[in-house]
Every structure is written in structure tokens, then in C-alpha cells.
Amino acid sequence: MGRLKPFIALVLVILILHPLSPVAAQGATTHFENVEMGISFDMPADWTVRVEADRLTAGTQADLDLFTNNQLPQGLIFSIVVGSYNGLGLQNAAGLPDQLVRLAPSGATPSAPESVVYGNATGYQTEFTIPDSAIATRVALLNIVGARLAVVRGLAQESVWPTIVAQFEALVQTLNFSLPAGLTNPFDALPDDDGGVLWQYQSGQLPGEAPLTLGGITYDDFGVMYIAAGPRGFLALNQETGEFMNFLPPIYDNDNYVDVAIGPDARLYFANATERGNQRIMVTDRVGGFANSWGVEGDAPGQFAPGMPRSISVSKEGDVWVISEGHAIAPTQRLYRFDSLGNLLQMIDLDTIVPGMKDLHVANEVNEDRLFVVGKEGGLQMLNWDGTPLITRINEEILNEAVPLDIATGPSGMIVIATQNQGFIQLTSIGELLDRFGIPYDATRGGAYQPGEYLMPAGLGISRDSVVYFAETNPTTGFAQMQAFSFSGESVLAMPGRTPEIDDSQVSVGTSGGPITYGTTVRGILNNLSPEQDYTFEALPGDVVLITLRDVSEEQILDTLLILLDANQNEIATNDDANTPPAGFKPTDSVLRFTPGVAGTYIIRVTRFGGNGEYELSLTQE
After folding, report:
1. 123-132, pLDDT tens digit by residue?
2. The sheet that has 320-325: what strands, in order across it?
3. 601: how many CB neighbours lie within 10 A of its CB?
4. Residue 404, SS3 per DSSP
5. What CA–CA distance (Å, rounded) separates 326 from 305?
6. Mean pLDDT to the nearest integer, 528-553
7. Do 436 and 425 touch, CB atoms closer than 8 A?
């Protein structure tokens, strides 16, 4: 009995009695719930629960009295202590197994930690006997909602433990952890008025071209970003400025590039959701040249369900991870690992990790060589490099409310999840919410996206400098956009609802092209990093169109140049110097008037004959 008193201190059962409903017949159960702790479970109706702050213990009244008085209980004692990762000196959930072993008292021999699911929480458990006490115990360390930890224990006399352990196992399967009453809406506590947009690329749909549907994002070591563009192939942008570089067509006309990752071989690996029965993984060089392909439609291992894959990630070792959902036979939800040549290395049944997940996305944390999987339901899953689950259902309740759409990882363990209802969420691998960004797209206003606006992000990426990128296409308007933003610091582009506000006729300095309409005035910057920018607009036959471009910088050294093109990039007109400049213009500013002969999309190319500076572009119908 010499070890029993210190163990009582270890499990923190300094308790206050909370009365329950009257005792029912032997074998009946009752439901216990404590909203302040965010815990509920089913237990024998003759039990009592004692609670103090973040800890509780349960058992019969007689057993609790015996245990509190340093005597052996006759039945099961059940306890839960809720704490934080920091409180246990943990940075992430990967340290749970080692920390669990350290919870055992000196002299005990804990069993090897094994992964477990207790109700709606996951973690690890071990079992040991407390030396010199005749007490056997099972201890679990669980990751629970709200980026918290729960230490769950069951203990009894060693002589009766084999017959009592089944009662403990049944009880823990009824556990339900929720947000404590004081933390019912953690999003309210997140800062969302800081950070800002660094640049925005935007384009409309061009007649005669395949649909532009922006998706996954990656980048190389030379400042080039690659964005999956659906049937159009992929888009290349300047990573620093968002300046358009090129559209690279797909290998085949019916390809559908929905996600992209770059491998250690500097090749681009595309998730190709084509209607064809083969080549579901397409590998190209960085200018779109064919390098390799694999993957056929079917239900055998390594084959893909219709419309799959839609998410792809490549590890630092060159392993290619992809998800295939909706197979006709089990496993229906699959996580595949291929080598860079397309040989299947592993198939994981995702329903064995968290049943019922859907619309899944995978991201690889290169520094730690871990995988993260997230879907619209089921929370965040952290897997080891070989697909072994480390911790699952991370912040399930919170993320289900937000509805995740994509995930990306960055330096120092940075994780960002794009969501349908809460914009872009920055969080840690234990689910701790750090920051939020984004403004819901104003569908009532319609038209082009404004800086900071999102609708249904389909691609997400993070730079080595922690800049976040997202891409999407509005299925109603056809506008496709990509934005670069940071969670902190000042915005380069003015955002709706921020100071200064913008409206439909004004876009701030730093815009980098995109759709505009009659009556619009935009500003931007031309320099060596961004020497030209393209704007698109729709015109009808007979429209009398006036386009003006002028230098509005203080230095007045920018010599502007206007070029007008049709949708096929054929030059229609150009103007370097205004012959008769309007009021407020100088001779080196540019003015163009034209009347289109056919309806369609036209391109205004804003560039310069010389100099650098801020410009103002106006499009009007006279």
C-alpha cells in the first residue's frame, strides 16, 4: 500500500462531490454530462462523479471513499484529467506515445503504447501495475477537441482487474468530448482583421478556349508557380508578383488537371481527373513536356475510381501520395503510395482510420516527413511517412463546422486549411487555432473577385516565407483567380470592409491584371519585376470604347504604352503617346478609342515604353 497514496496524488483526485440522479437497479446505466469540461459518458447508475475544475473521477460512493482514504477500492475507479499540450511539454501529437510511458510511476513496467479510439477521441493507451500497491491500471492519453489532451484512467485491485477491464472498455466507448461551455465558438477569438493580400491574378473565360478551372498549386526553386487549370492544362505565374507567364496545354485534349505537386526530380505530378480510363497520374517537365503517366480506372489495388484522383502530394523521397474515393468494392476510400515511376508501394483503407470521410485532400509535411489528410467531415488526420496513423479526428467538431476544402503545409510546421465557412485557418498539428483570413465572396454584387475574397478555394499552397496562395474558379461568373496573402502585416491591395475601402470602380495599387468592366478605373505598378499586365473586358458591336492609361506616380518618369488585342492575342491597336492628351494627361500617357465589329472578350495590355511607376487605367463606354 506504500505506493497507493502517491498514485492518488498522481491522478489528481482532489474532488468535490456532484450529486447525481437517484440510484437505479443494479445493472442499469445513466448518462453523465459536464458542459464546463465538455465531457459526457454512460456509467452504472449507482456511481457518483466528483469534479474539480479540469478533473473528474467516478465510481461507487463506497469505492470513492475507500480510495480517497488510501484504501483499496472493491470495484473500478474511473478518472479523466483535461489539460494542454504545453502543460505536458509537448509540441505536437507525435510525442504522445513517449509522454504516455513517462506517466507511469517509477518501478512500473508499462506495456508498449498502442493507438486507440475512445468514443470520439483518439490517442494511445498503456497498462501497468503500480509497484507495492496491488493496483492495476490502464491509462490513455487522448487528443480531444479544442487542441486539448485528456488523461483517461481506469484502475482496480490487481486481483479483480481481469474481470473489471471489460467494464472500463465499454465505458470509454461512450465517451464524447466537446468544446467546454466557455469555448463554444473558438472562431470568435481568432484575429481576422490583420494580414492582407500581396497580389491577385484574375482572368475570365476566353471564347474558343477550353474551360479555365484553377485547382492545386506548387512552385519550383526559380520563382515560378504552377497552378492546375483543369482542361486548360496548367498556368505559370511569377511567384513574387503574380504576373502572368504562360498557359501550358495538357498532354491530351481530354485531360483534366485538378491538382499538382512538384517532386525532388523537379517534375510536375498532376492528379488527372480525366474521363479516360487511363493516365490518371500525369508527369511533365516544367514546360509541360510529357515525362511519364500511370493509373487506370478500376477497383484493383492501384486503380482509380471514376473522376479520381483529385488530390496529390509528393514527399521529399519522391513517394507520390494520391487519394481515390468512391470505389465499387472495399476499400472504397483509398490512400495510395506510389514510387516516382508509378509502382504501387502501399494501399491504405481510409475507412479504417476514420470511417465516412469524404472529399479528401492530402498534404505532405516535408520537414517532418508526415502526411495530413482532411475532408469535409472527420477532422484532421496526421499520419507517419508510411501512412501509419499518429493521431486522428483532430478538432473534428470545429473543422466539421468550418467544412475543409483543401490543406497545405509550410515551414516550421505551419498548416493552413481552406474552408467553406471560415475562410483560411492557420492551425498547429494538434489542432490549436492560430489565425484566420478571408472575406466571403459577395454573390449579390457578382462579377470579379475583390482582393481577399474567396468562394470555394480549390487549390492551396504555402511558400518558404509563409506566404499563402489560393486558387479557384467561380462556376457562375467564370472568373478564375489566384491570390497571395499573409496572415499578418499590411495589405498591398485594398480589401472590402477594410480601411481604405474599395468599390466596384476602384482597385488599389498593386493589382496585376484581370477582368474589368465599363466605368472601371484601376491602378497598378509597372517596373522591372512586372513590366506588363493584361486586363480583359467584354464588348458588343457598336460600342464606342475609350481606354486611357496615365502615369500617376510622384516621379512622373513612366512612359506608358497601351496595346489592344482580341481573345486570340492578335493585336488590334496600340498607342504610346497621346497626340491630343485630355486634361490631366501628359503627352507620354496613352489613349485608345475603338469600336468592335464583333462581340467577344478583348485584352488590354498595360505596359511601358520606358521608366517605372504607378499607373491608372480607365475603361469607359462613350
Report:
1. 999 999 988 8
2. 312-314, 320-325, 333-338, 344-349
3. 20
4. strand
5. 6
6. 86
7. yes
Among 272-286, 319-333, 349-363, 601-615, name the one with the lowest average pLDDT.
Answer: 601-615
Average of per-residue pLDDT values in the chain? 88
Residue 250: alpha-carbon gap to chain centroid: 27
Nearest to 36 by CA among 92, 80, 93: 80
* pLDDT in the model for residue 106: 87
Average pLDDT, stretch 366-371?
81
Per CATH, domain 533-621 is 2.40.30.30 = no
Q: Which three cell numbers stand for residue 47?
A: 456511481
Q: Which residues contact 32 (CB under 8 A, 6 or more apart)?
A: 20, 40, 41, 42, 43, 49, 58
In the numeric block, the cell 516550421 is attached to 412
For β-strands 281-284 and 268-272, DSSP reports them as antiparallel
Residue 400's nearest CA partner among 384, 385, 380, 382 is: 380
Query: Please, are residues 100 and 113 in contact by the beta-carbon 8 Å criterion?
Result: yes
Provide the 3-class DSSP secondary structure of residue 8.
helix
- Tens-digit pLDDT profile for residues 349-364: 999 999 999 999 999 9
Residue 601 host element (H or E): strand 600-610
How long, in residues, is the chain?
622
Q: Which residues contact 64 (CB under 8 A, 6 or more apart)?
A: 15, 48, 50, 57, 73, 77
- Helix or strand (DSSP H, E) at 153: strand 148-157
**Across-strand partners of 480?**
203, 473
d(CA 576, CA 559): 8
449 secondary structure, DSSP code: P
For residues 271 and 278, the answer to whether their CB atoms sit within 8 Å is no
CA distance 163 to 599: 82
Burial of 157 (0-12, 13-18, 19+ CB in 10 A): middle
Residue 5 confidence (pLDDT) above 60:
no
- The H or E element that residue 433 is part of is strand 433-437
Matching CATH topology for 187-485+492-515 and 533-621? no
* pTM for the predicted model, two decimal places: 0.72
Q: Residue for cell digits 491608372?
A: 616
Q: Tell me the Ramachandran region of residue 168: left when phi exceeds 0, alpha when psi lies from -120 to 50, beta otherwise.
A: alpha
Q: What is the pLDDT of residues 395-426, one digit of tens each?
A: 888 899 999 999 999 987 899 999 999 999 99
Write out the three cell numbers for 65: 471513499
Domain spans, the chain: 4-184, 187-485+492-515, 533-621
Residue 371's Cβ-count burial label (10 Å; 0-12, 13-18, 19+) is buried
> 3-state SS of 564-608?
EEECCCCEEEEECCCCCCCCCCCCCCEEEEECCCCCEEEEEEEEE
Mean pLDDT value of segment 584-609: 86
The CATH number assigned to the domain with range 4-184 reads 3.40.1000.10
Tell me the pLDDT band of 10, cut-offs 50, 70 and 90: very low
Question: What band does 476 get if pLDDT is binned at 50, 70 and 90?
Answer: very high
* Residue closest to 574 by CA, chosen among 543, 537, 611, 609: 609
pLDDT higher for 568 or 61?
A: 61
Distances (CA, A) of 8 to 96, 127, 446, 583: 22, 17, 63, 86
- Contacting residues for 620 by C-beta, under 8 A, at least 6 apart: 518, 519, 545, 546
Specify the CATH architecture of the domain 187-485+492-515.
6 Propeller (2.120)
Helix H or strand E encompassing 176:
strand 176-177
